[in-house]
From TrEMBL:
The keyword Membrane does not apply. One of its GO terms (biological process) is methylation. InterPro entries: CFA/CMAS, CMAS, SAM-dependent_MTases_sf. This is Cyclopropane-fatty-acyl-phospholipid synthase.
Amino acid sequence: MALATIFEKIVGSEANVAFQAYDGSKAGPDGSDLCIEVKSPIAVAYLAQAPGELGLARAYISGHIDVHGDMYALLDRMWNITTNDLTTQEKIAAVRALGVKPLLMRVPPPPQEMRQSALAKLGSRHAKQRDAEAIHHHYDVSNRFYEWVLGPSMAYTCAVFPSEEATLEEAQYAKFDLVARKLDLKPGMRLLDVGCGWGGMVMHAAKHYGVKALGVTLSRQQAEWAQKAIADAGLQDLAEVRFMDYRDVKESNFDAVSSIGLTEHIGKANVPSYFQFLYGKLKPGGRILNHCITRPTGKEKTFNKGGFINRYVFPDGELESVGWLVRQMEDTGFEIRHEENLREHYAKTLRHWCDNLDANWSDAVEEVGMGTARVWALYMAGCIVGFERNKVQLHQVLGVKLDKNGRSGVPLRPALNWP
């Protein structure tokens, strides 16, 4: 059987994708706007040794498969394989079709892949040293690279679009301001922002609300970039970002806590202690805003250690349903006052990031290498599809630490003050 035909069977003929292979074979519809080019036998070896999503990803990242056409459109059409992978029977059939020889070739994964054996040497899942390495793997790519992808806001979390026409910068400002309003920030308050990234929330709270804000991140590059940005903005009397684990924060009695995109990295087993820790950092009447990616229900896998996302993007990442997270917050002692799903906003955010990467592709490749740039192109386009198809969601949950008399301090209709 011709190689192109084998790849078409693995991807699915209903995807309306053309295929061409180094052996001269072709498959799929003529004139398709999307084409997968199999460039070398190594691509076949990758697919034989890991049929489905992972093998295709390895072949693409390493440059042994090329994609001609729009990556988002390709992944949207290939949805079943890019999210659900192949069944065992389908994998067996694929290996048989590819033959024994590709199975015997020694083809190591691309260097961008985080090996589980390497993580295991750093301790159990979510031990401090292992968490630090997992964060380093993804966030310490290059600040310049992130500037090209994220834009001036340097916000690597879901934006909130006030309108369909809003720019990415307007939407990121709206996101930080929404968090600030939900937390009811006022001059003189103290904010703890855990997993603060490049300090966007910290600087927004200091600049626009007169809040004394402390941010912490496990990425040294993020912390260094943020401290320079804080100094350049003249906010050093109010804002600070530290390179440290949130669990090592000694200060307490904060008026508010924001957690924007950290919970995904905590791990299910540690979520109860995570909320307990943050509860202990708040004064009575203090508020917490937890903003994170979630599963749409409690039925899906929380963690796929063999999948593309875990190996290349977010090592040790785990997603839970919003219902489960709310229960953990409640059991910790927080009273839940507001919750909303922003998944469509994340799809729009990711589209802007993909456009930014496309616009700066040559510079990005020169900065971080073709393999890493391809990881990003693949993962961000796939995430757009995931959010659009409700395979993942983005939730903000607002909680309050009641005082000893059960008072929340929340106005009767606080939503009137939120954009």
